[in-house]
Design a protein that fits this description.
The chain is mainly α. It is 31% helix and 0% strand. The chain has 4 helices and no strands.
Length: 91
C-alpha cells in the first residue's frame, strides 16, 4: 500500500484540479486514500521506487497498529544518500 510520500510533478495539477475538490476536515478519511479514488486518479500512474527515500516508523494511529507496522513496514529498506540528482523530469 504505497502512499507514504507524494510528489506532484506540476503545480498546475494541484492548483487547477486537486485543490478545488480536496476533502474538507469534516470528511472522516485520509487525503492519501482520497487521492487513490478512480475519479481523482484518472488512470494516472503511481511510480513506486524499488528503495524508498521515506520510512514509516509509527506504530499507532488512525490507520495503523503495531502488527501492521511489524509485518509490513519494519522490513522496508530506505535510501539515505542525499546527493541524488533528478533529471529527465519532463519526459
Amino acid at each position: 500500500m504505497p502512499g507514504l510520500g507524494w510528489l506532484l510533478k506540476k503545480k498546475k495539477l494541484f492548483k487547477d484540479e486537486l485543490e478545488k475538490q480536496w476533502p474538507s476536515s469534516d470528511k472522516q478519511w485520509d487525503w492519501d486514500m482520497w487521492m487513490r479514488l478512480p475519479t481523482v486518479r484518472k488512470n494516472r500512474e503511481c511510480i513506486i521506487p524499488g528503495v524508498s527515500r521515506t520510512y514509516h516508523f509509527g506504530s499507532k494511529g488512525l490507520n495503523m497498529n503495531l502488527y501492521f507496522q511489524e509485518v509490513y513496514f519494519k522490513k522496508h529498506s530506505i535510501f539515505n544518500e542525499s546527493n541524488v540528482a533528478l533529471k529527465d523530469l519532463d519526459r
